[in-house]
Amino acid sequence: MSSTPNDPMIGRLIDGRYQVRSRIARGGMATVYLATDLRLERRVAIKIMHGHLADDDTFKTRFVQEARSAARLAHPNVVNVFDQGQDSDMAYMVMEYLPGITLRDLLKDYGKLTPEQTIDIVTAVLGGLAAAHKAGIVHRDLKPENVLLADDGRIKLGDFGLARAASANTATGQALLGTIAYLSPELVTRGVADARSDIYALGIMMYEMLTGEQPFVGEAPMQIAYQHANDSVPAPSLKVPSLPHELDELVLWASARDPEDRPRDAGAMLEQLLVVTAGMQGTAEPGATEATTVMPGPLAPTMVLSGAALAGVDDFAGSDSETQIIGSARHRTGPVDAADADGAAQLRGKAASRKRRGYWLFAAIVLLTGLAVGTGWYFGSGPGSRATVPDVTGQSVDSAVTDITAAGLQAAETTASCSHPSIAPELVASTKPAVGSSLPRGALVTICVSTGPAIIDVPAVIGLPEAEARTTLGPLFAVAEASDVRFTDEQPAGAVIALLDADGNAVAATAYEQSPVTLVVSAGPVPDVAGKSVDDATNTLKAAGLEVETTDPVFNSTVPDGVVISASPQADGPVRAGSTIVLSVSKGPDLVEVPDVVGMNLGEAIQKLRDEGFVVSYSFPDLLIPVANAVSTDPAAGELVERGSAITVKGQVTL
After folding, report:
1. Which structural domain, as residue segments, surrounds residue 642?
2. 89 catalytically annotated
3. Helix axes of 266-280 and 245-254: crossing angle, nearest 10 degrees
4. Is pTM, for the whole model, over 0.70?
5. Which candidate in 174, 453, 545, 611 could, as Cys together with 421 as Cys, close a disulfide (CB 3.0–4.6 Å)?
6. Contact at 8 Å (CB) between 463 and 491?
7. Which pLDDT value is given to residue 352?
8. In the predicted model, is pLDDT for residue 210 greater than 90?
9. C-alpha to C-alpha distance for 597 and 648, rounded to whole angstroms
């Protein structure tokens, strides 16, 4: 199981029900994640179609078709599909989660499998495939990657992404679908597929399981496709002589070039496999004259032959027993009819033909060996010998010329220059032809000298979502895996607010290609804690990854005692995680007691109140103030009022 820290899907809730946990695998059409079904409290695998395919009706239709095809099947050897839907612009499909490996992983670890292991896996695959064929579904993409081997021993067939309802000739609708190594000849030549095409793919898989390699290989896909269309699959025992001949017959039957010579569907092949398994376990007794033998044939899918009817064909497939069990699981005894006799004759003819082919094959091998020896001399040390261009990148020009000359080639320096992101100037950046090319001895190799990294324009990524910015910059620069996340109200959360170079400075409009850069990404504004208690504000800011300091409380006429008035970072600009936020805390309004000035000279009373910080008003002629006394104040003496409040003084002249 793999996980991608920067994958935006991790942690996302799909359709209000499926919580994405980690990434399992990624394919050409979709990505599979491990998720939790919050409604049923179980682990599931959720397959989400790639966003760039959401507008492609063909891909979306195929994605929905996969879910419907698999959902129609209820079989222990088919991966169950639980749900399918659309969340925003994402099409998704929910399947059962099977922790384990694929058959491809098993083949990579062990190379080839034993006949017993092969039979166990093929039996399970045929069981699931038979259910699909019975439901009228052709898989069309059968390969080891789609066979799942669970940790608890279950074997299941999955990925019906290319499946279609079967008709007489189910066309692909486009060039070729599926994996080229397992495509049937009719798919290659005519672009049509039915249940027998799945059987062909299974035959190729059986060959690969038994021998550890595929029957057809080539440097280009078209070479492999040509072999599928024109060559017959060889018997696995030619590679592994110890294999039972019954498995040879099964593989050759399943992988016949002509669809008419294969089993009609997975059910028929499963019956055949069960009989072969019984025969390999020794269920038939050698020498039994009335034993029933069941043989397959291209024209009659099931031919039942008695032991007596098989007299004289003991050389079939190398057997020394009169009893063969290779074919349908349905046994019967009694005399054979005309169809049975025709089938026996047909099988005897095939056996003799195979024996003749064996002699010709031996002669061909001898001839080819001689040709290989002669060819090896001609091209190895004779007139046709060739030389390989050595790897001289990063070397000085003189050293490169020496190595190329030692390899039997000629070297020349071009006047052109080559920029290179990692090779220093004056060193070899590349050769033409490229390193590893095979050339006639004495051929010319041109050396191109590096001018260092090229200076390129920096794309505008400020304001873009982080994932989009990484996609834009990835081919041009060495983008740091970890972004510098900062709090700011300049950009929404997740958007890029700056691009820094290796020294932490803002990247200019141009820069060297593949130079290291770091994205500064917005975490949104610093949490607003004004109006909260000091404890609540501190907890909120620390949960966001920030440190907290408080100033001495200050009087505030509008904010209650112990409540945050404001929160400010210590420095200007975007705030890093771990930075300190300073809280200004209120200690409520500044209340003072109104002094008692009644009876004092009016002028002295006014001055005393002003000295206490009050704003004093009075309605008395200034001319008479020296001879007047204060007789009252509003508010009255002794009342608590906020410092700086307005007080009215009333005076009276006394004679």
Report:
1. 591-653
2. no
3. 170
4. no
5. 453
6. yes
7. 52
8. yes
9. 12
The CATH number given to whatever domain includes residue 610 is 3.30.10.20
Question: Do the domain assignments include residue 183?
Answer: yes
DSSP readout, 38-95? TTTTEEEEEEEE-GGGTT-HHHHHHHHHHHHHHHT---TTB--EEEEEEETTEEEEEE
Q: Is the pLDDT of residue 505 over 60?
A: yes
* 8 falls within a domain: no
Q: Is residue 507 part of a domain?
A: yes
- From residue 399, give the alpha-carbon distance in Å to each of 160, 388, 412, 441: 56, 17, 12, 19
Q: What span, in angstroms and rounded, lies between the C-alpha atoms of 96 and 154? A: 13
Confidence band for 313, pLDDT divided at 50, 70 and 90: very low
326 and 362 fall within a common domain: yes
Say if residue 111 is in the same domain as residue 81.
no
Task: Kindly report the three-state secondary structure assignment for every residue of 411-424.
Answer: EEEEEEEECCCCCC
Q: What is the mean pLDDT of residues 443-460?
A: 88
Quickly tell me which residue has 């000091």 as its tokens.
534
Question: Quick one: 155 and 273 in the same domain?
Answer: yes
Same domain, 250 and 182: yes
Are 407 and 444 members of one domain?
A: yes
Give the distance from CA 394 to its chain's centroid. Answer: 35
Residue 569 resides in a domain: yes
Rounded Cα gap, residues 88 and 529, in angstroms: 33
Shared domain for 257 and 339, answered yes or no, is no
Closest alpha carbon to 464 in 455, 473, 476: 473
132 plus 267 within the same structural domain: yes
CA distances to 50, 406, 582, 602, 621 from 626, in Å: 92, 120, 52, 7, 10
Pair (581, 603) in one structural domain: no
Please give the structure tokens belonging to residue 615: 């704003």
Out of 75, 97, 119, pick the residue that ends a domain: 97
Residue 556 to residue 584: CA distance in whole angstroms: 11
pLDDT tens across 573-582, in order? 788 888 888 9
Separation between Cα atoms, residue 612 and residue 590, nearest integer Å: 12
Q: Please name the amino acid found at residue 118.
A: T
Q: Which of 255, 335, 231, 279 is nearest to 119 (CA)?
A: 279
**Gap between the Cα atoms of 284 and 54, Å rounded:** 58
